[in-house]
Design a protein that fits this description.
CATH class of the largest domain: Alpha Beta
Low-confidence stretches: 1-26
Number of domains: 2
Order of helices and strands: HEHEHEHEEEHEHEHEEHHHEH
Strand content: 15-25%
CATH topology of the largest domain: D-Maltodextrin-Binding Protein, domain 2
CATH superfamily of the largest domain: Periplasmic binding protein-like II
Number of strands: 11
Strand order of the largest sheet: 2-1-3-10-4-11
Mean pLDDT: 90
Shape: globular
Helix content: 40-55%
């Protein structure tokens, strides 16, 4: 009898071990977030580390921020599933969604439905203030830098407006530059490495407010008309891991950020936002059309 009891005990233990969930299963994997690296890496770490902590507390699941090296890497990481949700610009968001069927645009800052780009110039260039799209022709014959090649506010929309004015990239003096980030664009134009450049208006305004721009060396010369830009995009397979309502729960958590709450205000300030609002894929149809026109979207994969 004692031998039989021992066998039963061993069998029970083996069954318990076999049925226990192993470490590293889908249920224990974190919800991973990322972002296009459009600003200083130290700032990005603070920003997305803060939003990861906030989402983890609100959603009740582990949330991990994973930095990427460049805009293309952000799109690739989203496509292959290394990142579940990414803070994209308008163009990269479209590129990512075209590669992941069922991906959804969830939320954007209130400023992102009326976003703009800023053209800046080194004062030694003698470039004047520009009053309209047509005046962009005065940039012809000058050296010029965009931001990242895949940036909406630092390349796609500015190039579109340049084309509307009748300018091509061949009209600039030498090859146009691609600085890689909005902060670097400011630095290069301030230093005179390029006579003019273009960047995200929110970054420009933030650096002005911080006193980080040498206005004796560089100045704003024109702001573009508005367009939709930055937004959060989520993969559809998060529903299998975290529940069918998970995308809506994420959206609700982002929309719940309230500037009157000191902890929330810190996150919103890092984002340069007053609040988040809902968005949808259809809001970026114009960005997709312009991306195809300029050659930044070559096929629907």
């Amino acid at each position: 009898m004692r031998y039989l009891s021992l066998l039963l005990l061993v069998g029970t233990l083996l069954l318990a071990v076999a049925c226990a969930p192993s470490q590293g299963t889908e249920e224990s994997e974190p919800f991973t977030i990322g972002a296009i690296p459009d600003q200083d890496p130290e700032l990005l770490q603070r920003l997305y580390g803060s939003i990861a902590d906030y989402l983890e507390a609100e959603l009740g699941v582990p949330v991990e921020y994973r930095p990427v090296t460049d805009y293309t890497a952000a799109v690739t990481a989203f496509r292959v599933g290394d990142l579940d949700m990414v803070w994209f610009g308008g163009l990269t968001g479209v590129q990512a969604r075209l590669q992941v069927e069922g991906a959804q645009a969830l939320a954007q800052r209130s400023i992102d439905e009326q976003f703009t780009s800023v053209f800046i110039a080194n004062r030694d260039s003698r470039l004047p203030q520009l009053d309209s799209i047509d005046d962009l022709t005065q940039l012809a014959g000058h050296t010029f830098t965009f931001g990242s090649e895949s940036s909406t506010s630092g390349r796609l929309m500015p190039q579109y407006f340049l084309q509307e004015a009748g300018l091509t990239l061949d009209d600039f003096n030498g090859e146009v530059g691609f600085s890689g980030s909005h902060d670097t664009t400011i630095e290069l134009v301030t230093a005179g490495s390029y006579q003019a450049g273009v960047l995200n208006s929110q970054v420009w305004d933030s650096r002005l407010a911080e006193g980080a721009v040498d206005l004796e060396r560089v100045q704003e010369i024109w702001r573009t008309p508005p367009y939709h830009d930055y937004h959060w995009v989520i993969r559809p397979d998060v529903q299998e891991r975290f529940g069918q309502d998970f995308p809506q729960r994420v959206t609700d958590a982002l929309l719940a950020l309230d500037a009157s709450n000191p902890e929330h205000a810190e996150i919103l300030n890092l984002f340069g936002a007053e609040r988040f609002i809902e968005t949808e894929n259809a809001n970026y149809a114009e960005i997709e059309a312009i991306g195809r026109q300029i050659g930044q979207i070559v096929e629907n994969r």
